Amino acid sequence: MTAEILDGKAFGAKIRARVADHVARLVADHDLRPGLAVVLVGEDPASQVYVRNKGIATKEAGMKSVEHKLPADTTEADLYALIDELNADPTIHGILVQFPVPDQLSERDIVARIDPAKDVDGLSVTNAGLLASGQRAMVSCTPLGCLMLLRETLGSLSGKDAVVIGRSNLVGKPMAQLLLRDSCTVTIAHSRTADIAETVRRADIVVAAVGRPRMVPGDWIKPGACVIDVGINRIPAPEKGEGKTRLVGDVDFDSAREVAGQITPVPGGVGPLTIACLLANTVTAACRINGLDEPEGLTA
Ligand SMILES: Nc1nc2c(c(=O)[nH]1)N[C@@H](CN(C=O)c1ccc(C(=O)N[C@@H](CCC(=O)O)C(=O)O)cc1)CN2
Ligand SMILES: [Mg+2]
User: Fold this and answer.
1) pLDDT tens, position by position, 164-178
2) Among 160, 181, 206, 222, which residue's beta carbon has the most beta carbons within 10 A?
């Protein structure tokens, strides 16, 4: 079997078109233009690219985009003063502080400072708790995108065996909660899982989110399984020339594609869904904050 390759760029574009449609309606019917503020602390080159792409995508969808670039030595007090300002700004509905942040800052404390209603990363204790208890939450963008892609690809997920490899607050844990909510039988595997190969072999759905290049070989995959590779790992690529690098996922694509039913590539799989779902979450937040109906097709 050779797997169907799931095109994250195309699906991301579809989500973004849906977002733009909702935005146009919110502006026309309610004079409400959703606004997203992205805060970047320091000069991490990859983060600079992601933040720029978020700004471009936000404007393309017809939303207000605000970028705050702070120096690498920004203090907690200065960052919190900015977050407080954004929390109070009625034209801003989503706030995202780009991670990683420099060492003097705590990701956990930053997230706690953001109004949970504007927490478009879904990382606050409030949103994690709402999701875990089956209530309306803001859901982290990458797992939200993975869930939308799984539903689009497989239809109902009910009764399927799903394994999430990785237990981060940003991806692994919310992904497992979303799959559980769609009535999957969910296992979270991680570095201490006793027989990870056997655990993965049982799964109809594999979501790999560990950040270890090509950790999951094809012979761990159940024939026909749907494989979602969240990993974005930069590795040396001497074949492209000295000092060159390339991106690979957490799954060994070449061997896994021979076994899987469907698989996401890296790049061009899950990555583009993260930004598309950030836009979706901003629209959702704007609707909720203003007491309007949930946007259809943009929430989990
Ligand atoms: N506050 C947050 N920080 C970070 C998040 C996040 O969700 N919230 N996620 C990542 C970075 N990220 C978005 O912020 C992100 C990463 C990758 C992509 C993407 O489209 N990747 C492309 C490849 C890009 C490349 O060539 O380098 C792909 O996979 O096709 C989008 C967004 C960490 N920080
Ligand atoms: Mg981190």
Assistant:
1) 999 999 999 999 999
2) 206
Is the Cβ atom of 247 under 6 angstroms away from ligand 1? Answer: yes
Beta-strand pair 35-41/64-70: parallel
> Does the beta carbon of 272 sit less than 6 angstroms from any atom of ligand 1?
yes
% of the chain with per-residue pLDDT over 70: 100
Ligand 1 atom, smallest distance to 121 CA:
8
* Ligand 1 pocket check for 275: Cβ under 6 Å: yes
Domains along the sequence of the chain with CATH: 30-117 (3.40.50.10860), 141-272 (3.40.50.720)
Catalytic positions: 54, 98, 121
**Which atom in ligand 1 lies closest to the alpha carbon of residue 9?**
30
Instruction: Summarize pLDDT for 142-163 with one digit per residue, the tens.
Output: 999 999 999 999 999 999 999 9
**Contact criterion met (CB below 8 Å) for 248 and 233:** yes
